[in-house]
Amino acid sequence: MKRILLDGTPLDTSHRHRGVGRYTQSLLAAMQAEADPSVSLGILRLASATDHPGPHLVRPFSGTGRDWLKALSSLSRIETTISRDGAASFLGLDPDVVARPRKARMIATVYDLIPLLHREQYLPWKSQFGLPRLLHSAWNPHRLRQADHIVAISHEVKRTIVETLGIAADRITVIHPGADHLALAPDGPRGRIPSGRPYILHVGAVDSRKNLARTLRALTLLPRDADLQLAVAGRMTTAEEESLREAAESVGAKERLELLGFVEDEQLSSLYRGAVAFAFPSLAEGWGLPVLESMALGCPVVTSDRSSLPEAAGEAAVLVDPTSPEAIADGLRRVAEDTRLRQDLIERGLRRVGSFSWRNSAREHLRLLSA
Question: Which of 53, 85, 183, 313 is in the most buried spot, having the most CB atoms within 10 Å?
């Protein structure tokens, strides 16, 4: 019986509240459901401080996923655990610290290279003794070059790996994420926001590449009778919340911003259904999972014409120049005012999202790991 070990550690760190956590949880569940009886799957997890470490548990590095010194100190224990497991293959899913087991065939997952490409923003030297910069600029690229194979979540990510790290294209396989992890029915309950006003929805992180300042500016350029709010759903720090409110005030959109915080899947699904549009004019992405979530729930999408987003959206979204508030505003206006366009986008989106399932993603991973 072939033994395959899967990396579940992102579920034990701060990644569990972000896209990597969603990806890990959905993929591992699908792989367990799809695995052939001749394959034995194990899942590597981090033990809590009170857990007695079992065969697939290692002690954590603070449980936050952001204490880089402790992360490095735990790496050798993670790698030892993988080797002791006796697995023939290991699928790594942690984007921060790339493990390289001595015995198992190593398949690394790359979601994007954004921290490496934008070091001053994401990897300042003064942050935690420069360890994040060291990891993403030197350690992880070195480990990725040592990997037996790499899974990229989009063709855009594959292209970036080849061009930036010089890794041969034949060592990289593109496997798109699924998009069927929510209660994906476009005819379910429709959400409302606290103000009760019509809204444009944004889901996920709020750092500068998500471009929310320009989205807020775009709202102020819409006709006065549009009366649209920007509703932002997602976990954020106090500093991020204050920064976003300041950005809204600076462009005259203070009263048009509503921060919803973290919401559970059922509420998130209803928010998608109830939105006038989903706005995602991001400057850089590895894929764009919220775009497909939105389509699956019957919400028309306005997104960026660059990075991986055209690959994710296909012909089922309005693509705009993310550097232009005027272009974003025009895209939102078209969706809000043109009933025929809106319905066409909804229908195209539902067809588009049918191409991406976690079942198919799991099967492609299992084929790769069993080779």
Answer: 313
Rounded-to-integer distance, Cα 334 and Cα 351, Å: 21
Q: Per the structure block, which two tokens stand in for 265? A: 């899947």
| Complete domains list, the chain, with CATH | 2-178+357-370 (3.40.50.2000), 199-353 (3.40.50.2000)
Structure token digits, residue 92: 């790594």
Q: The tokens of 295 are what?
A: 């389509």
Q: Using an 8 Å Cβ cutoff, are 276 and 199 in contact?
A: yes
Query: What CA–CA distances, in Å, run from 219 to 30, 134, 198, 213?
Result: 39, 40, 12, 10
Taking only the tens of pLDDT, the chain with its 371 residues reads 899 999 998 888 778 888 899 999 999 999 999 999 999 999 988 776 455 555 566 554 444 444 555 566 677 788 888 888 889 999 999 887 788 888 899 999 999 998 888 776 666 555 544 555 566 666 678 889 999 999 999 999 999 999 999 999 999 999 999 988 775 556 667 888 989 999 999 998 888 899 999 999 999 999 877 889 999 999 888 999 999 999 999 999 999 999 999 998 889 999 999 999 999 999 999 999 999 999 999 999 999 999 999 999 999 999 999 999 999 999 999 999 999 999 999 999 999 999 999 999 999 999 999 98
Structure tokens at 182: 């929510």
pLDDT in tens, 347-364: 999 999 999 999 999 999
Question: Measured between alpha carbons, how far is 4 from 342 in angstroms, rounded to an integer?
Answer: 45
| E strands, the chain, in order | 2-7, 39-46, 57-58, 89-92, 105-110, 149-152, 172-174, 199-203, 229-233, 257-261, 277-280, 301-304, 318-320
Q: DSSP readout, 260-325?
A: EE---HHHHHHHHHH-SEEEE--S--S--HHHHHHHHTT--EEEESSTTHHHHHTTSSEEE-TT-H
304 bridge partner residues:
320
> For residues 196, 201, 206 and 208, what is the CA-based torsion angle, rounded to 10 degrees?
-120
217: its two tokens = 């500016």
C-alpha span between 96 and 88 (Å, rounded):
23
For 338, the token pair is 């043109």
Q: Give 75-91 pLDDT, tens digit per residue.
A: 778 888 888 888 999 99
